[in-house]
Amino acid sequence: MAEFGEEDLSGSTFDWTDLSGSTFRAASLSNVTIRGTDLHHVKMTGVELWDVDISGEVRGLRINGVDVTAYVDAEVARREPDLAKMHPDDPAGFREAWDLLEKLWDGTVERARSLEPAQLHEQVDGEWSFIETLRHLSFATASWVHRTIGGDSAPWHPLDLPWDEAPEGKGFPRDRAALPSLEEVLELRRTRQADVRRVVEGLTEETLAAETTPPDDAGWPPPRPFPVKECLSIVLNEEWWHRTYAERDLAILEQRPH
């Protein structure tokens, strides 16, 4: 257990670092970026919280004694009425959700085609480029549909892109330097989408309620039982939110000079 007092750690990067149970007193966390990090059971008192932007899974958020979680959820639902369809409970609901996602993504891809090819590799505020977003969704499908549900121990394509904080040594590709064209990525993307469609079209109440275990190796996700419903729900969640982020960033790219 380390102690830091009156030290300048500004500009530091903490990757796969365990800071659980730590205490910050009179510390400056201004201009900090936190990605892919667990913030469970965090208590902040006497803080100045200005211009903070939080996106992710938020539960039990209390500000000055007021639980704002329900308000946030209600406002998101008001802005995105179709979001409720991303939490289905039966096979028909999963088919409806996938139909909607394919339709929405078709529109987003057409919007992306209006940009210059180089812009599709541009990042906005350090987030993934449009091409990287599609590559990540391919990774998510390979992991949760092909590997976890289908039992394929090595389902990944060289262009598949895991999340930035993914652990090393898991046997999947992570080529951040690759610059494939939109058509190259869409060819892979269409194959992955068709594979998800085959799974949801074949769902029954029994198969949706069943559990599945990935192969016992170093891949992702780890070899433990997962409900099929959870696997497919993760795919829906990835597809919905990454499209939301893509639309946000495309709007910014459309305003950039090129």
From TrEMBL:
SUPFAM superfamilies: DinB/YfiT-like putative metalloenzymes (SSF109854), Pentapeptide repeat-like (SSF141571). InterPro entries: 5peptide_repeat, DinB-like, DinB/YfiT-like. Residues 205-219 have a biased composition (Low complexity). Residues 205-224 are annotated as: Disordered. Pfam families: DinB_2 (PF12867), Pentapeptide (PF00805). Gene3D superfamilies: dinb family like domain (1.20.120.450), E3 ubiquitin-protein ligase SopA (2.160.20.80). It comes from the Bacteria. Residues 101-245 form the DinB-like domain. This is Pentapeptide repeat-containing protein.
